[in-house]
Amino acid sequence: MKASSVSFYAAVVAVLVGMSWGIVMAISQDHSAMPAHAHLNLLGWVSLFLFGIFYRLHPSLEVTRTALMQVYVWIIGTISLTVGVAMLHAGNKGGEPFAGIGSFVLLGDMLLFGWLVVCYERRDVVRNLALMSPAE
Ligand code: HEM
Ligand code: HEM
User: Fold this and answer.
1) Which of 1, 51, 47, 40 is nearest to 18 (CA)?
2) What are the CA-CA distances from residue 107 to residues 18, 77, 80, 132 (Å)?
3) Which of 29, 39, 82, 112 shows the smallest number of beta carbons within 10 Å?
């Protein structure tokens, strides 16, 4: 599957879980899981959907293993951080390694994404300049 498709599917799953969680918090009037809910939605729904749009804009990138790996690592990091933060806010210290490792996995993965953005945006600029130059 292409990196953008994986991003879009995973983003929708994340927001469905995130919204259901939000409704449960609102009905129960127990907002203690708020940071976990917020990050599941922001890392899962918002960030993954944005990655998907970027990959869809760069067809040669989204078929690479690096792009696919970046998306899968983000999904794993988001699950780890969300579970860890939810456990911590429920008073379970066992959530610390999940939240901590998830944070660094996400940061590393964002650095990889940033590097891909720089490489492929540069490539596009060079290609556009070549197209603009007059034919010999
Ligand atoms: C059915 C949909 C949703 C419901 C019922 C819901 C419900 C809630 C509730 C009850 C809180 C706690 C508010 C508080 O304690 O101050 C909250 C916080 C939050 N939610 Fe949602 N939520 C929903 C969807 C979303 C989505 C789609 C996003 C992101 C795209 C999102 C992002 C956030 C954020 C960032 C916070 C923390 C806000 C703050 O710092 O005060 N939520 N949500
Ligand atoms: C490695 C990734 C991240 C880590 C470790 C992290 C960590 C944190 C922490 C420790 C808080 C304070 C929570 C509290 O007061 O209980 C927070 C709040 C918040 N963060 Fe993040 N964050 C990350 C990524 C992001 C991203 C990518 C976004 C937006 C796209 C975001 C949006 C927010 C918002 C809106 C709040 C306030 C709502 C809340 O208290 O949960 N964060 N974050």
Assistant:
1) 40
2) 21, 9, 13, 37
3) 29
For the chain, the straight-line distance linking the first and the last C-alpha, in angstroms and rounded, comes to 40
Alpha helices in the chain (DSSP H): 3-28, 34-39, 48-57, 59-62, 65-89, 96-132
* pLDDT at residue 20 tops 70: yes
CA atoms of 89 and 68, how far apart (whole Å): 32
Supply the DSSP symbol for 135.
Answer: P
Question: Would you state the structure tokens that stand for residue 68, as one six-digit string?
Answer: 């696919």
Reply yes or no on whether the pLDDT at 123 is more than 90.
Answer: no
Residue 32 · residue 89 · CB < 8 Å: yes
Q: Which atom of ligand 1 is nearest to the CA of 26?
A: 10
Mutate to test the pocket of ligand 2, among 31, 32, 39 (most ligand atoms within 8 A of CB): 39
Residue 74 above 60 pLDDT? yes
Is residue 86 pLDDT above 70, yes or no?
A: yes
71 lines ligand 2 (CB under 6 A): no
Ligand 1 within 6 A of CB of 2: no
